[in-house]
Amino acid sequence: MSPRLPRRSRRGLGEQAPPARGRRVRGCREVRGDRGKRLVGRYYLEVVAGRRIDVLQQLVAPEFVGHDPAGAIMDRAGYFDAVAMLHEAFAQLVVSIDDQVAERDRVTTRWCAVGTHIGTFMGIAPTGRNVILTGTDIHRIEGGRLVELWEQLDLAHLLAQML
Q1: Helices (H), 90-139
Q2: In 3-state terms, what secondary structure has residue 60?
Q3: How far is CA 61 from CA 71, 97, 136, in A?
Q4: Which of 12, 54, 109, 138 could pair with 150 as two cysteines, CB 3.0-4.6 Å apart?
Q5: What is the reported pTM?
Q6: pLDDT band of 151, cuts 50, 70, 90
Q7: Residue 131, Cα to own-chain centre: how many angstroms?
Q8: Rounded CA gap, 45 and 32, in Å?
Q9: Which residues does residue 146 pair with via DSSP β-bridges, in sequence order?
């Protein structure tokens, strides 16, 4: 027999949840959802797919910090290098935004990119194959610019396509 949940957690299908109370996190500035989504969308469409480094320079704040799942941290220059590496390794990138959610000062995006492997990537010589790269990113926005990024890429699937 499964344990019983506390009464407050058992809500019938027809019952409504109590209204959520808005709460403000100290030190967290509110960014309008649509504005944040448009800003992050510009990154994927104009920078990644459109290869416009000039737009990347406009979007990324000088104090930018990027985080990867292993705990590595990159600064603005490192981020620019990572984007350049992506452009050098893959041609004709087509990016789609599959899901996007904005809350407070953060925008979470689940995305997919399709491109042709034309340059060395992670030590793998160009194969000429069409590949798919997927990821989920959380961007933090401040002052209309990207100031922080947490990124999760499906590199295992990408590498399997290139080998």
Answers
A1: none
A2: strand
A3: 21, 22, 21
A4: 138
A5: 0.76
A6: very high
A7: 19
A8: 20
A9: 60, 141
Strand stretches in 2-159, DSSP E: 60-67, 73-75, 90-103, 106-117, 130-142, 145-153
Q: Phi and psi dihedrals of 80, rounded to 5?
A: -60, -40
Strand-pair category, 145-153 with 90-103: unpaired
Q: Supply the DSSP symbol for 69.
A: T
* pLDDT the model gives residue 32: 53
Q: Nearest 5°: phi and psi at 44? A: -65, -45
* Token duo for residue 39: 């800003």
> How much of the chain, in percent, has pLDDT values that exceed 70?
80
User: What digits encode the pLDDT tens for the residues 13-39?
Assistant: 344 444 444 434 344 444 455 899 999
Q: Which three-class secondary structure state does DSSP give residue 128?
A: coil
Q: Which fold has domain 31-162?
A: Nuclear Transport Factor 2; Chain: A, (3.10.450)
Pairing of strands 60-67, 145-153: parallel
DSSP H or E stretch at residue 80? helix 76-89
